[in-house]
Amino acid sequence: MHTPNAWQRLTHLNWHQLRLSWCCQAQCPMTGSSCCDYVEAGGGLIAVQPDAKLAPLCGLTGVKDVTGDGYLCVWAGAAGAEGIAGGALQFHAALHHYQLREAEAVAYLCSREGVASQTPAVTYRRLGRGAIATWCYDLAQSIVYTRQGPPARAGVEADGLEGVRACDMFVDFVDLDRIHLPQGDEQQRLLVNLLNEVSTTPLPRLWYFPANADSLLVCTGDSHNNPAPAVDEALRRVEHFGGTMSIYYTPLPTSTVRRAMRRVRAWADEQPVLGELVPPSDVVTPYHADAWRARGHEFALHPYVEDGLEIGWARYWQQFTGLGYGEFDSTRTHRVLWHGWTDTARVQAAYAVRMNLDYYHVGPTFQRDDGAWAFGYFTGSGLPMRFVDAEGRLIDNWQQNTHLVDEQVIEMPWGANFVGSTPDEAIEIADGLIRRAVSGAYAALGAQFHFDPFAVPGAWRAGAALYRDGVLASCVENGLPILSAARWLDFSRNRAAAYFDAFSGDAESGRVSFTIQHDVAPGDLILLLPVQKNMQQLTSLQADRKQIPFKTRRVGATLYAMVALAATETAIDARYASE
Question: Percent of the chain, pLDDT > 90?
């Protein structure tokens, strides 16, 4: 038996199912019987690049050829294919070649144009009362490389802009003709579809977003020592649309004496009498930071790391906390400079910063050869995920892509506007991405709305306001909550920590029961349970022994019943019956 590594853990598979695929002998470690007997008796098996001993059970014969990074296309009508994007999808892991025997192809290795070969990429086999789904490439490794970029390109300048950024790793790595699709998310949804196919009992899962939202906007803005009134004015516009925002603030470097004077000024602002006598100051004080946090916003550090990652973080952390601004949950680095493959994430995690927005859609990386610009999911995802280091260890720092970047599409005080679009054209670009997200490319869309245009006089102020308000209005129109990164992180971490216990499923009686424990706000966490399974229909659903009505949501190939979890611990009992 091989010890599971982080690549395997990242697939979020049930470990009982996963470890069967890594069994050195064809014997089930749970029952002592052969894997063949286990599957024929109704067991479900997920295999990843099976070796010569396991391949025949998967209905495959191994071939010596291997293909590196490439494309796959899901075969319409195959098991688990419903709801998955058609055409070519990129993968970034070695794909071992197999010949089909008793298995059927779910996806084939294909050309960039989507022309399928005879080499399977994903297969499915029914055997007795059970089933086997096989990945011919390492899905977990592919997802990590798709999202974080290839380790070999870390630290390499590739896009022509001064400074190494995370997006440098994606030059000629992400196919700009497929960037409109969350390619990694689609392949993970295929995994979920096939888990449902091989399981004999209905499998519960949790919806991606709070309160059953179709998608959401992670609203953030960099602030380079901008005056408090400019920041506050922008926050009130976000509040006008029902949202909250993360302010990534860079304080000016000051001496110990000047920091002390600013602390005194902050204290005076809070006093009911002195605050009226002392002339108002535009400098952001802890009083402002606390007031903004009380209104639901996040006030966090925007560090400079030009002189080095560790040096920059130590210097600006001391500056930020020394001025009394407090600690914070998320960040974006100035100029989104990126160090190593995961060095930036590691250093931030050491400061208890748990979400990073440095994977940032900016610059010529996203311009096609014909001059047209591409927008979408350059990490293959619209969802957050913890970083993984080169040894396969999870880092307690979540990658949240910044998909919508103002300086990419509208004029900024420092001369940026790579695309050269007008504010109205930029709104159309954002609106298209928002509409795709709510239509099935589900995403927490990260947005950057700089505060600087509202603090520096110039023609760009009106354009920045028009663009920001247009994007926020599109979110409201399409039902997207507008959240600060801190609020999104809180939901994401608690959702990931939710725990299923005492699971019991009986295919013959049609009964499924379990408990779920979580720390998400009441009503925000949505439980999904398949409406149909094994020719049986969900007829009764109880939460804590009370019959509850349910609505439905289709995700991929599966129609789910939805339950908003009101309590931090809920006992679920579901009954299925033949139609």
Answer: 84
